[in-house]
Design goal:
The chain is an all-beta fold. The protein has no helices and eleven strands. A hairpin with a 4-residue loop joins strand 7 and strand 8. It is globular and about 40 Å long.
């Protein structure tokens, strides 16, 4: 059974840092495209960052230069390092996965591309 479990969320003041993790079980993570999404109250889910099996990354404009996505395939872990956090980063953060495919109908920060989702971890940034 495939499963994604996020952890590491919490509360932090603006300007602070936080790292969230996603543990994947039932996967050979090295063959999966992975991503982080977030959803704030009363807002739509939005793509934050994505990473391919070869390490190629893409970021939403709102987090470029502040967030870093990475993966440890040996441990089946996905990370999102978040620096210089802002109150507008407050949201529930979700990891997502899909077996790598070359031909795609959706770009890597579009949630419709992914098949599997975690339950989310809350990140709250206070001003």
């Amino acid at each position: 059974q495939v499963q994604l479990v996020e952890s590491g969320g919490g509360s932090v003041q603006a300007g602070g840092s936080l790292r969230v993790s996603c543990a994947a079980s039932g996967y050979t993570l090295s063959t999966y495209s992975m991503a982080w999404f977030r959803q704030a109250p009363a807002r739509e889910r939005a793509g934050v960052a994505a990473i391919e099996p070869d390490g190629a990354t893409v970021y939403a404009d709102s987090v470029k230069g502040r967030f870093t996505i990475s993966r440890d395939n040996t441990k089946n872990l996905l990370y999102l390092q978040m620096n210089s956090l802002k109150p507008e980063d407050t949201a529930t953060y979700y990891c997502a996965a899909r077996l790598y495919v070359r031909l795609r109908a959706f770009p890597p920060l579009d949630g419709r591309f992914y098949n599997d989702w975690g339950q989310g971890t809350q990140v709250t940034v206070s001003s």
